[in-house]
Design brief:
globular, single chain, about 400 residues, about 45% helix, Rossmann fold, about 15% strand, seven-stranded parallel β-sheet, alpha/beta, six-stranded parallel β-sheet
Length: about 400
Amino acid sequence: MIRLFINGLAASAGAGLTYLRNVMPHLTRRTDTQATVLLSAELRSEFTDFPNISFAEARPSRGVVGRFIFEQTKLRGLLRRSGAQVLLSAGNFALRDSPVPQILLSGNSLYVSADFYRDVRKRRDYMLWGDTLIKGWFARRSVHWADVTVAPSAAFAEELSKWTGKKVLSVYHGFDNNLFTSDSTPLSASIQNQLSKSADGLKLLFVSHYNYYRNFETLIRALPILRDRLPRRKITLFLTCYLSSHQTPGSYRPEVAASLARNLDVRENIVELGSVPYHLLHHLYRACHVYVSPAYTETFAHPLVDTMSGGLPVVASDLPVHREICGEAGIYFPRFSPEALAEQVAQVQESSELAERLSRNGLRRAQDFSWSGHVERLVALAQELVQP
């Protein structure tokens, strides 16, 4: 029996919360593992009780800085009281001088992305630039503080290793197709209405909150090119966000993207659906024709696995992570080339053979991702750390 302490304070929403929701059910099925999970007090009600998992609650000051200070000053005491043998730090930052062996889960590629730093400087968002530099310094030190660092893809693990000079392991995040497709609740009437308006056209989909590294602007610049390339088809891009600051989480400012869409006269080609609950996304994937991911940096890209599980062809920027995750389920374009993006989408649209091949390959590839396999590998790493 091994006892783990999972620091989940970083799981305030989004991917972090989804990660814990997927990992804990598989942890509780193991007879060789017990765990204590540290959550913010506001999130404790999000999780039901599990037989071999206990919870600790904390109320750190808001923001990443408040969380970091809490972890560095209070976490050692919580660890000792829990009796845990291994600490699993799930938020990019490790505990310095941990009293027990520590596994760090590192999953933020912005800290190592020259494209991101160049992008935010070009936008004159110097506060975000400085904030990322500071966090990146602590993220880099964290790899040295941890006994083992784990990245969600081999490509990102290699980036981290070059950045830090330390060995970084790769353990894929998982996917549960039965869980993902289990909710038969239909999409809202407003979303269904928007989809039906484009029933005879080409429906593109991009699932993401607005942020800079997802490279929305390249995707928007591709729309008039694609419209000219396919004059007989109405092109509609569906986004799961809004291009306005007051409806965008975080400090990212989408007004540049919105202005670009107006200037290129493609505003009517873009439908802003807003956030769609994760358990309903499978309906949205199946209602569209092509999934497009123009991101210029990435660590794993969960929506691509969701996409492949639904048999939707993928057109993605030519990143090592995208090629690793999708393989032959996608076709790729230089990350800042709207012309190449448009051409790849057009090829999928014009060749049913290509679309069907990408779909088949995606269905097969999605089966390679398993949350039970992810948990099994982490537990094995923890057991190796405590072996005499």
